[in-house]
Specification:
Blueprint: E1 2-5, H1 13-25, E2 33-36, H2 43-51, E3 54-57, E4 67-70, H3 77-85, E5 89-92, H4 96-110, E6 114-118, H5 124-132, E7 137-140, H6 143-146, E8 152-159, H7 165-175, E9 179-184, H8 190-205, E10 208-212, H9 218-230, E11 234-237, E12 253-258, H10 264-276
The structure holds iron/sulfur cluster.
């Protein structure tokens, strides 16, 4: 069976940077070392970090001393102020692409635009961007949400870094009749675009597509959605243990892609198991 891993798959720059900063803190910065929410949306990596003494907490109320790591998704700026007040050491691992989206959101508000954030309402990154805009924004997930909006004089748009470009285009097109002026910051990150293009291309050629990554990872779920659009035999798995032999009946070519928070060892193991089938 032919097995091919997409040209761009797995860890992105922001995730690698966050993990590096977290590991460098061990033994150097005050303990306990905690991440505010799982550092990346991959349960296997979160467990591995736990073994190194880096644990995940849900809120600052759970930590009174030590070090807090802000993950690549970023946070509400108030969280950093509160952590400082508590005397915690702060490692800000917010991805520079997310920081750009936060600053663009704030800039649009300062320039008097009605801000529209295109993204998943409950995703931590979107919650952080919304907070940077002082809560003066409307979050739209897709074109259906636009119908409920009234008309605006001028609209400013920023996008969750992992959104598909097609969704942004549809939202922009739906907003055009509702306003006189639109200013768009395309804050979709490069890593996302490259992974989505590579995944779609491979899914078109392959008989079956495996998308590897956390079930709680938004960018992995989006890769699954993109692959499923062109290849109905697409499966989202977290590890090789979920692979089912019956999926591969009549399959000669398997494509593999992985979310930005999936480590290479999990991808390699999936490829190894498929080759043995
Ligand atoms: S997907 Fe993009 S924005 Fe998100 S952490 Fe990775 S590089 Fe940064």
């Amino acid at each position: 069976m032919k097995v091919k891993v997409a040209k761009e798959a797995g860890y992105c720059y922001g995730v690698e940077r966050a993990l590096k900063l977290a590991q460098e803190a061990v033994g150097k910065l005050p303990e306990p070392i905690c991440t505010l929410g799982p550092i990346i949306h991959n349960p296997q990596v979160v467990d591995w970090l736990k073994g190194k003494g880096i644990v995940s907490v849900d809120s600052l109320n759970q930590i009174d001393k030590g070090t807090i790591i802000i993950r690549s998704h970023g946070v509400d700026p108030k969280v950093k102020i509160e952590a400082k007040k508590k005397g915690l050491e702060i490692i800000d691992a917010t991805c520079p692409f997310v920081k750009k989206a936060q600053h663009c959101a704030r800039k649009l508000i300062e320039e008097g635009y009605n801000l529209v954030i295109v993204g998943e309402r409950n995703h931590p990154e979107v919650i952080g961007i919304f907070a940077y805009a002082g809560g003066k924004a409307v979050v739209v997930e897709n074109v259906k949400d636009i119908k409920q909006l009234s008309n605006f004089k001028k609209v400013g748009i920023v996008v969750q870094t992992t959104q598909p470009i097609e969704n942004l285009k549809k939202v922009i097109n739906a907003l055009i009749p509702k306003t006189e002026e639109i200013k768009i910051f395309n804050t979709i990150c490069d890593a996302t675009v490259k992974r989505q293009i590579a995944a779609r291309n491979l899914a078109q050629d392959a008989d079956l597509m495996l998308v590897v990554g956390g079930k709680n990872s938004a960018n992995t779920s989006r890769l699954t959605q993109i692959c499923a659009e062109v290849n109905p035999k697409t499966y989202h798995i977290e590890t090789a243990s979920e692979i089912k032999k019956e999926w591969f009946k009549g399959v000669n070519f398997v494509g593999i892609t992985a979310g930005a928070s999936t480590p290479n060892w999990i991808i390699d193991n999936v490829a190894k198991v498929v080759k043995k089938l």
